[in-house]
Amino acid sequence: MALAMGREALNEFLDRVFPQIAGQVRVESLDEARLTARLAVDDQHLRPGGTVSGPAMFALADVTIYLAILARIGEVALAVTTNASIDFMRKPEAGRDLLAECRILKLGRILAVGEVLIRSEGAEEPVARCSMTYSIPPKR
């Protein structure tokens, strides 16, 4: 399947539509099978104990799946999460960005299902795994 949006277009979309995360989340790489996004971890993402917070990891997973869907269907701002499940498996390594790798498992006309593995940069073992279902609005 040919991609509808490339890495640069997705990053520009993030900056334009989600200024609240501008500069924090970037698409690192993209092909027909996977999208990898980076969370530039800083103090606002940390919780007591010096680790990345669950909400920050959930947001990274959500944005990564959303971008992987848009890469395939084009700019559809109103695609929304309808179901989500996340497993926090280990503490992220301190002082490292997080990388989220997404695979789209199913892409239909009205629903898309994706899975994300989140790792600390340079680490093999995932810190979290997330699966989400998105609703895609009908074309007008």
UniProtKB/TrEMBL annotation:
GO molecular function annotation: fatty acyl-CoA hydrolase activity
Instruction: Supply the CDD domains for this chain.
Output: PaaI_thioesterase
Q: Where do the Thioesterase domain residues begin and end?
A: 49-124
| Keywords on record | Hydrolase
Q: InterPro entries attached here?
A: ACOT13, HotDog_dom_sf, PAAI_dom, Thioestr_dom
Protein family per UniProt? Belongs to the thioesterase PaaI family.
- UniProt-listed PANTHER family: ACYL-COENZYME A THIOESTERASE 13, THIOESTERASE SUPERFAMILY MEMBER-RELATED
Q: What is this protein called?
A: Thioesterase domain-containing protein
Question: What is the protein's species of origin?
Answer: Paracoccus denitrificans (strain Pd 1222)
